[in-house]
Amino acid sequence: MYERIQQSFEKQGLMKTLNARLEEVKEGEVKISCLFSEGLTQQHGFFHAGVTTSIADSACGYAALTMMPEETEVLSVEFKINLLKPAHTDRLVAVGKVLQSGKRLTITEGYVYDASEEKLIAKMTATMIAVQK
């Protein structure tokens, strides 16, 4: 399972651009981290909301993929993110978790934490769809 997720993750240009890392893969759960860089900030010097959203979306998508058959891929259908506090940290950690896995649609939640993994920065709810390779 880890190899499948890792191979797909390595194909993502955006994750490379963000210098994001695949930290952990379990059935129904994936953790992705991203180190702070000036190139990833908004005007106040915090991580940009786009970075927070991107790693949460990927963590949710890969969590969904862990529950899908080998011959499928995953795409985001929709998501909502609540940005709870400024991302003023040296590392973001996104954890995607499957809430309900179906044949076509999987409902996930994503949580983005600070470097200590104690402060919740954002929460995402996302729907993923299984597509044939």
Q: Can you walk me through this structure?
A:
- The chain has 133 residues and is an alpha+beta fold.
- The chain is 23% helix and 44% strand.
- The protein contains 3 helices and 6 strands.
- A 6-stranded antiparallel sheet has the order 1-2-4-5-6-3.
- The longest helix has 17 residues.
- The relative contact order is 0.21.
- The model has no long low-confidence stretch (mean pLDDT 97).
Secondary structure layout:
Blueprint (H helix, E strand, L loop, with lengths): L1 H9 L2 H5 L2 E7 L2 E7 L13 H17 L6 E12 L7 E11 L3 E9 L6 E13 L1
Features:
about 130 residues; alpha+beta; 6-stranded antiparallel β-sheet; 3 helices; globular
Sheet-strand content, in percent, reads 35-45%
What is the N-to-C order of secondary-structure elements (H for helix, E for strand)?
HHEEHEEEE
Calculate the terminal CA-CA distance, rounded to whole Å: 16 Å
Contiguous runs where pLDDT drops below 50 for at least 5 residues: none
The DSSP helix count reads 3
Q: What average pLDDT do the residues reach?
A: 97
- Give a quick account of the main beta sheet: strands, pairing sense, barrel closure: 6 strands, antiparallel
Helix content: 10-25%
Radius of gyration: 14 Å
Q: Identify the strand order in the major beta sheet.
A: 1-2-4-5-6-3
